């Protein structure tokens, strides 16, 4: 029986505080602006991936949460090709190495969070895929070098190769060689950032979006001003706020950038709306929480969907997550280890319509915080015979 | 018994297709950008105002829909002062004229539409007030000259002094002397523009907006690009579209400008949201209608509120208003003369969530079209004894 080669990793979700929106090169996933994210803890949200290869495999395959995925798409193919190329170089320099670069790949992946939650899982997914294959191939590439490859799978995946606070520098080279992720600060630099995710109920379904960031690039007349002028300024200020651990500055930049990103979506023709009435209710309650505190202790941000991610500091847990627990305590999610520890705090001067809007429109909450980058694990999702492990 | 002097007028509502948002001088209501509107028919929406003066009146007063209004505010005072000043000049040049400029004013006003509908009534209100007093004083000032005064009452009121298609040129003088309304084209030039207004139910109340255009000016980093670059380009294109009676161009400019205006509101810090899920549903249905027609036959626009105003041409009434009647036929408003004539048309490929959103969120419809400017009437709301007429 032929040998089965395996490597497994977990990789985190990241939620940007300076948003990626718009590609200057759609095939290479080269962005129109730099972006910056917080990596979230894998105990709450992670993808677990095993990469394996064997001369016995007949074709490349990818199983996600038990469902076969198409691997023929250009994004997955680009990752496979780049990683095989690096492996091939290694093999050429050391003839004793097994010729893994010529074998088919079997990838098995599982998320520890429901896909239905509408959380961007492609970032964690491609980061785990690239990291696991790189480990399988015993590549010496650094996370920044691997970020060039993960970016081609899914733009924001490049940021999930690091823990803590991560920037994706847009670069300027036509081949994308300098469009890479780097660590702004490790999780240990500012470990007490927490987040509560308010997952919008799919029952409260909004009107479908004619989606696509490239429509924004092509039609929004406000977009280029954001990409060229506003984001570069914010990137500098955000890195500085993180270095100084200045939460109020971090919060204001985060909220302004989310607002500005969704403004350019609304300015797209036809307009793209990701925020719904539930999202706007979350914004108002965050404003109420900050007004009651007399300073910015909570910061909302929204990706391309209605779920609010609200960042706060551990020391303000009661005043932020506790207030949400006060009126959303019946929702799913508080039973987690983090959720159970949150003390209920009665909110001051909350907008009644906003509170009712969240009660009606939030289906579950997820409590999490800043966390580490990909972690190599020995828990393989492919067994020694090369079969996917049944779970 | 002393003589009672009276003059009465009706004045129209106008709905901008290039929006006014932001003041460069708040006390003079000088805008940061020019704007352009369509005057709507007074048979559907109008303010009826009688201005009267008499030596027997003890104080200035204003009665709106039977309720006494405060006249001490700087906006109303500015209008009174400017108009009295013009009357005073006339009196100086002709000693035989009665000294109306020294008498107190009694103004009585009525709207033919419910205030609760959330339609900007201040434009029609101040236009009627200024026009009625100018008639009372027998001023020779042109509508453009009077627009300088009405603008100080309510910015967009200056556009309600004309019928048809009206621009408000922002001007550059510090005293506002060149910030005036002018006729782009009379109603007769392009008489077949129609509009359906979808009044959003107050039961579907959104989260309150932290309002204020000056917050946008102060905090939106996208706003100045709109005001300085985008609006001037659109003003030129819109005037051209109106001159050529090119509805598709008119429609696209109207929708883009509404989108861009609401984008800068969303970019305000904290963000201002006027559109709710009902508004977004209206946008999707207009997109569906245009997709079915293969060209832009309907154009949505939203002022500072959730009500959609949808412009279309009389020849497309069925394909636009008829489609709305198809699923909103039970709502109030179709019983009007215009509404009764609209033939129901079954929409093609309508977004089901959007249709449901409008069924849930629209309380009434108003059918109207382009119309005339203020009209002098003999139906006085103040009787010969100087008393408000009971209605």
Automatic annotation (TrEMBL), chains A, B:
<comment type="similarity">
    <text>Belongs to the diphosphomevalonate decarboxylase family.</text>
</comment>
<dbReference type="InterPro" id="IPR053859">
    <property type="entry name" value="MVD-like_N"/>
</dbReference>
<keyword id="KW-0443">Lipid metabolism</keyword>
<dbReference type="InterPro" id="IPR020568">
    <property type="entry name" value="Ribosomal_Su5_D2-typ_SF"/>
</dbReference>
<dbReference type="GO" id="GO:0005829">
    <property type="term" value="C:cytosol"/>
</dbReference>
<feature type="domain" description="Mvd1 C-terminal">
    <location>
        <begin position="195"/>
        <end position="375"/>
    </location>
</feature>
<dbReference type="InterPro" id="IPR029765">
    <property type="entry name" value="Mev_diP_decarb"/>
</dbReference>
<keyword id="KW-0456">Lyase</keyword>
<keyword id="KW-0756">Sterol biosynthesis</keyword>
<dbReference type="GO" id="GO:0004163">
    <property type="term" value="F:diphosphomevalonate decarboxylase activity"/>
</dbReference>
<dbReference type="Pfam" id="PF22700">
    <property type="entry name" value="MVD-like_N"/>
</dbReference>
<dbReference type="Pfam" id="PF18376">
    <property type="entry name" value="MDD_C"/>
</dbReference>
<keyword id="KW-0753">Steroid metabolism</keyword>
<dbReference type="InterPro" id="IPR041431">
    <property type="entry name" value="Mvd1_C"/>
</dbReference>
<dbReference type="GO" id="GO:0016126">
    <property type="term" value="P:sterol biosynthetic process"/>
</dbReference>
<feature type="domain" description="Diphosphomevalonate decarboxylase-like N-terminal">
    <location>
        <begin position="11"/>
        <end position="181"/>
    </location>
</feature>
<dbReference type="InterPro" id="IPR036554">
    <property type="entry name" value="GHMP_kinase_C_sf"/>
</dbReference>
<dbReference type="InterPro" id="IPR014721">
    <property type="entry name" value="Ribsml_uS5_D2-typ_fold_subgr"/>
</dbReference>
<dbReference type="InterPro" id="IPR005935">
    <property type="entry name" value="Mev_decarb"/>
</dbReference>
<keyword id="KW-0547">Nucleotide-binding</keyword>
<dbReference type="GO" id="GO:0005524">
    <property type="term" value="F:ATP binding"/>
</dbReference>
<comment type="pathway">
    <text>Isoprenoid biosynthesis; isopentenyl diphosphate biosynthesis via mevalonate pathway; isopentenyl diphosphate from (R)-mevalonate: step 3/3.</text>
</comment>
<protein>
    <recommendedName>
        <fullName>Diphosphomevalonate decarboxylase</fullName>
        <ecNumber>4.1.1.33</ecNumber>
    </recommendedName>
</protein>
<keyword id="KW-0444">Lipid biosynthesis</keyword>
<keyword id="KW-0067">ATP-binding</keyword>
<keyword id="KW-0752">Steroid biosynthesis</keyword>
<dbReference type="GO" id="GO:0019287">
    <property type="term" value="P:isopentenyl diphosphate biosynthetic process, mevalonate pathway"/>
</dbReference>
<keyword id="KW-1207">Sterol metabolism</keyword>
